[in-house]
Amino acid sequence: SHPNAPWIKHVIIKHVEIFYDYPGVPGVGAGIEAKYGRNTDLLISHCYIHDTGLPFYFINVHNSIIEYNYICRNGSDAEHHSEAVSYRSSSSNIFRYNIWNDIEGTGYIVNLSGPTDSTEIYGNIFFVTDGNPYNKSVGNGVITTRTSGDCLASYWKIYNNTFVNLYGHVIALYVSGGGNVAFNNVFYRNLM
Predict the structure, then answer these.
(1) CA-CA distance, 76 to 184, in Å (whole number)?
(2) What's the distance, CA 26 to chain centroid?
(3) Could you give the CA distance from residue 47 to residue 99 in angstroms, rounded to a whole number?
(4) How far is the C-alpha of 153 from the C-alpha of 174, rounded, in Å?
(5) SS in 3 state form for the chain?
(6) Dist. CA 178–CA 171, nearest whole Å
(7) CA distance 4 to 171
(8) Between the N and C ends of the chain, which has fewer C-beta atoms within 10 Å?
(9) What is the sign, positive or negative, of the torsion defined by CA atoms of 122, 37, 25, 27?
(10) Long-range contact list for 33-36, CB < 8 A, 24+ apart?
């Protein structure tokens, strides 16, 4: 994030479809980017975000809500690595009541760098379509951090979510600052 970038505040994005015109090209195109300055009080609700390289790219995002969205089929390969949410140096955000389907890359919601504090993730459905027709999988986990580095996750609450047909780790906060809890989640037909 650029030190002299302006603050972006009180932005509402609702009832929008976001996609990339060339879904066969993995990892290209971002859905919603909030990465310069300090981004606060964003509301992203009731959107359909699909066939993009990176549905959400969040750096320095605070006090925001991502809710009631359908996010599916991002693209990722060795050259254009991706996840559903690239999450960095952010705090006090809520991801709730979303449907996350057929995501690949590092993970679905991933803290990649910098501390992320007080994140709540609840009421979501994370799944891969039966038979995995798009050949999707994640490397680190569904809700995760990088395996090392400055990606400290503290005071994350992960609850009342449903995880179905997923491959690999589901909740894996490799770099934890403490205070993280996960409870009342449902896991069905997941493979390690």
Answers:
(1) 31
(2) 17
(3) 11
(4) 9
(5) CCCCCCCEECCEEECCEEECCCCCCCCCCEEEEECCCCEECCEEECCEEECCCEEEEEECEECCEEECCEEECCCCCCCCCCCCEEEECCECCEEECCEEECCCECCCEEEEECCEECCEEECCEEECCCCCCCCCCECCCCEEECCCCCCCEECCEEECCEEECCECCCEECCCEEECCEEECCEEECCEC
(6) 15
(7) 35
(8) C
(9) negative
(10) 33/57, 34/8, 34/58, 34/59, 34/60, 34/61, 34/64, 35/1, 35/59, 35/60, 36/1, 36/2, 36/5, 36/6, 36/8
Least confident of 122-126, 149-153, 178-182: 149-153
**Paired tokens of 55:** 């549905």
At 109, list the tokens: 């919601």
The pLDDT assigned to 25 comes to: 58
Residue range 72-89, pLDDT digits in tens: 998 887 777 789 999 999
Tokens of residue 130, six digits: 């039966």
Structure tokens at 29: 């195109």
Output the CA–CA distances (angstroms, integers) from residue 111 to 20, 77, 116, 152, 176, in the order listed.
24, 19, 7, 8, 11
Name the band, by pLDDT with cuts 50, 70 and 90, for residue 7: confident
Contact call for residues 45 and 67 (beta carbons, < 8 A): yes
* pLDDT for the residue numbered 182: 96
Q: Give the position of tokens 């359908």.
A: 70
Backbone angles phi, psi at 122, to 5 degrees: -150, 155
